[in-house]
Amino acid sequence: MKVTVVTRSGREVVKGGIQLKDSALVSDLQEEIHSREVVVLTCNVARLDFLSLIWLVFYFPVKKYYPSRQRLTLPLPPGYRGKPTVLSPKKGIKEYTEGNADNLTVVFKDLGPQVYYSTLFFWEYLGPLIIYPIFYYYPVYKYFGYEEEGVIHPVQTYAMYYFCFHYFKRIMETFFVHRFSHATSPLSNVFRNCAYYWAFGAYIAYYVNHPLYAPVGDLQMKIGLGFGLICQLSNFHCHLILRNLRSPDGNGGYQIPRGFLFNIVTCANYTTEIYQWLGFNIATQTVAGYVFLVVATFIMTNWAFAKHRRLKKLFDGKDGRPKYPRRWVILPPFI
Ligand SMILES: NC(=O)c1ccc[n+]([C@@H]2O[C@H](COP(=O)([O-])OP(=O)(O)OC[C@H]3O[C@@H](n4cnc5c(N)ncnc54)[C@H](OP(=O)(O)O)[C@@H]3O)[C@@H](O)[C@H]2O)c1
């Protein structure tokens, strides 16, 4: 069959179209687009050595539209304002043709440079993991006008271990637990997400380790950190449950998570994430920590609604599909 690949403005991406076997997958089409794209000269800058001020500029030919950078959709009928159908790389091209047609036109969009999800998560979590101990171990407050070094309260030490354990756990989960459905994410997300996590990491660390920090009572610290730790372990358990919904190569789509807190709430991993930050804040009591808690809760609540809607749509109880059970979305007994 012949596939014509056009941009949204109608320009042909591969002149003359692409001839593929009827059994070809969308991923085969993406490989073909990549191999047949016009080679462009890309600028690469290299410095001769660390001390040198001499910079070399290389131009070398590259093919930039590797498959994960491509988004292929079906053309929208004239006047239609809805979202186009996105072609799944794992599906056969024939599934997107009408009847037994031998021709298909697809619309190509460049998603821009991509990074692996694991790379994105690694960099966003590494920032707080490094930044927080800097405020604890080093005399940084003299740069903020505080000459006297304050005494270190036990809660500040425990909070530092708690905070670092949290981000270390998230890096480990990224590499050894999560089974992502999408391999890559736009490079621009690295900068956005790093700004979010690194800035909040520094903001919280600044106030919790401040020389004028006033600690809460011993009992409150123990309750807060103890509760938070239980929630961190529960969060890990939730991630193991989500992991087991997919095969090791990430296949399996979206399933109904069952067991543990998932029997009550759709996004139990977010619920436990929110509660573990609450535990941290009960123990440390800073405005910065609570601001982060509110922002993170807001973000996760939005995502949780979208995930809840998706599962209800996928499991609608029609045509033999199971019906999604009645559950809270993220924060029982409210939402
Ligand atoms: N503090 C904060 O601001 C903040 C914000 C967000 C997340 N977090 C933390 O980071 C963790 C990971 O975040 P996330 O947004 O990546 O979590 P997530 O999307 O809920 O799930 C984690 C993994 O499980 C998969 N998954 C989720 N639901 C599934 C289902 N029904 N069937 C099959 N697989 C499913 C996801 O696949 P996909 O690849 O398809 O999504 C992903 O690989 C969270 O649980 C939370 O602890 C913290």
From TrEMBL:
<feature type="transmembrane region" description="Helical">
    <location>
        <begin position="115"/>
        <end position="138"/>
    </location>
</feature>
<dbReference type="GO" id="GO:0042761">
    <property type="term" value="P:very long-chain fatty acid biosynthetic process"/>
</dbReference>
<keyword id="KW-0444">Lipid biosynthesis</keyword>
<comment type="similarity">
    <text>Belongs to the steroid 5-alpha reductase family.</text>
</comment>
<keyword id="KW-0472">Membrane</keyword>
<keyword id="KW-0812">Transmembrane</keyword>
<feature type="domain" description="3-oxo-5-alpha-steroid 4-dehydrogenase C-terminal">
    <location>
        <begin position="184"/>
        <end position="335"/>
    </location>
</feature>
<dbReference type="InterPro" id="IPR001104">
    <property type="entry name" value="3-oxo-5_a-steroid_4-DH_C"/>
</dbReference>
<protein>
    <recommendedName>
        <fullName>3-oxo-5-alpha-steroid 4-dehydrogenase C-terminal domain-containing protein</fullName>
    </recommendedName>
</protein>
<keyword id="KW-1133">Transmembrane helix</keyword>
<feature type="transmembrane region" description="Helical">
    <location>
        <begin position="287"/>
        <end position="305"/>
    </location>
</feature>
<feature type="transmembrane region" description="Helical">
    <location>
        <begin position="150"/>
        <end position="168"/>
    </location>
</feature>
<keyword id="KW-0560">Oxidoreductase</keyword>
<dbReference type="InterPro" id="IPR039357">
    <property type="entry name" value="SRD5A/TECR"/>
</dbReference>
<dbReference type="GO" id="GO:0016020">
    <property type="term" value="C:membrane"/>
</dbReference>
<dbReference type="GO" id="GO:0016627">
    <property type="term" value="F:oxidoreductase activity, acting on the CH-CH group of donors"/>
</dbReference>
<feature type="transmembrane region" description="Helical">
    <location>
        <begin position="189"/>
        <end position="208"/>
    </location>
</feature>
<keyword id="KW-0443">Lipid metabolism</keyword>
<dbReference type="Pfam" id="PF02544">
    <property type="entry name" value="Steroid_dh"/>
</dbReference>
